[in-house]
Each structure stands twice: as C-alpha cells, then as structure tokens.
Amino acid sequence: MVKFTVNEELCKGCGLCVRACPKQILRLSKTKFNAKGYHPSEITDVEACIACGSCFRTCPDSVIRIEKE
Ligand code: SF4
Ligand code: SF4
Fold it and tell me: What are the structural domains of the chain?
C-alpha cells in the first residue's frame, strides 16, 4: 500500500505531475483551492499507484511525498 500526500498549500497547480503519471491517476482538484488560489494535485486511485516516483521527481517544488506502508 502506498501513502500519497501533496502539500496542498505549496502546490501551484502546474499539472506536471498529472502528465508524468504513467497510471493516469493524478488530477488537479476541481473543488479545492489553496491560499494562493491554485487547484492542488490529488490522487484518484491510490491502490493503482505503483510508487514509480515519476510525479515526485517531476514536481518542481517537491511537494509530493510517497511512502510505502
Ligand atoms: S508514484 Fe507513479 S503511479 Fe504513483 S501517482 Fe506518482 S507517477 Fe503515478
Ligand atoms: S507538479 Fe507539484 S506543483 Fe505541479 S501540480 Fe503537481 S504537485 Fe502541484
């Protein structure tokens, strides 16, 4: 099981992680805004995550954390 977290306040909603995910399980939230007005990234199906790290490595601000439980 993978634990996927995004520091929502530091995410700038650039979408690079969304495009980098080979499983296509990331999206920019349609309902959440952070204090800067950005839609943070979120995972849609954590059970499908293969912990490849592509999103983590792609994020320019290093706001994604992936932990294997
Ligand atoms: S670790 Fe890989 S599969 Fe999991 S959300 Fe990130 S890019 Fe997608
Ligand atoms: S790449 Fe980083 S800053 Fe950009 S949307 Fe994803 S988590 Fe947010």
Answer: 2-68 (3.30.70.20)
